[in-house]
């Protein structure tokens, strides 16, 4: 482990020297004035030459005089959906996100008869949206006084975000619901519970990101699962856009009954400069931030003795969530249920101007750097991971709260359908409606997703 760390430091020194030297004046590249678009774009290109997975496909003579955002789009590989260039001082470099502004998302559906309705698909616990009474499954009649239809829902979304307030009329509720912007910290673990079915005890956990802040709640959830002697685990990541590799490794160590500290969790394959390297559970878990770190030995004490794990996925499941599914397969039977995932099978880390003094302040690059594979060498899922069992949450409407046992994805995990106390909670839909707008799609493309420590 020490030799690997030394190798990473040597690589970092060598490649930093390369990057700094490449920024200097050369015969074919003038010394652009600091702060100019040409200077910024030159730094972007030099950085991408070192780190970018597709560095050999970068154009030889791009247009350095254009705006950095346009320049970045020009030099990106045509198959790259996820690399990003952002500037904290330029909001336009962060495409608008409904959930990050108000704490909820909506989708617009069209049924086989052409009827259109917009419904709340997700509400962040503890957000102002939840405080106002919004619930997943609520049907929206008007948004800021306008009836949402296919032709205006995108504009209504953008205008609401830009205005920092949204006024909704909801079916079955009198008056209006007003939600204003509230910046708060999301707890990635929305809910967890235990129930019985077919003579077995099931644990259910909804995880919406792999941020370090999830670890305390994961500890609580697995402690509860052990107390209740859970025999089957359902992990719901249907809306999870990703996050930290170390957090994913920690959760995998808690789930798998067979993985050992030195076993390989992930294999990174980069460009010719980065090469290929395999990283164990212990190495990844050691990268968790100070104050939230959990040793492999500690993580293993939360294990439930599972023979398999059910993982619920959707078209928004991405990045570290996909990595977890793929990385667990060599160590435990994984049954993926739901829909095909997004296909973000790569990792990145943030690149800033590390020179002193900085010549290109503020700008940050999130390039795709590594392709990801599991300990068996399996990867290449850029088209998404295909579920073992298909299920569509829209086959039952209205949309149910996460963890509701009538949810069609949960029902698909069970040995036999459950009889839910209180009667029928939702109606089965014979023809599953088509999604014609999904505000969550913005999160898919704007969230950095799976992030790793700088390894070189």
TrEMBL record:
Keywords: Hydrolase, Protease. GO terms for molecular function: endopeptidase activity; serine-type peptidase activity. This is C-terminal processing protease CtpA/Prc. Pfam families: Pept_S41_N, Peptidase_S41. SUPFAM superfamilies: ClpP/crotonase, PDZ domain-like. Residues 102-145 form the PDZ domain. It comes from the Bacteria. PROSITE patterns: PDZ, PROKAR_LIPOPROTEIN. GO terms for cellular component: outer membrane-bounded periplasmic space. The keyword Protease applies. It comes from Pedobacter cryoconitis. One of its GO terms (biological process) is signal transduction. PANTHER family: CARBOXY-TERMINAL PROCESSING PROTEASE CTPA, TAIL-SPECIFIC PROTEASE.
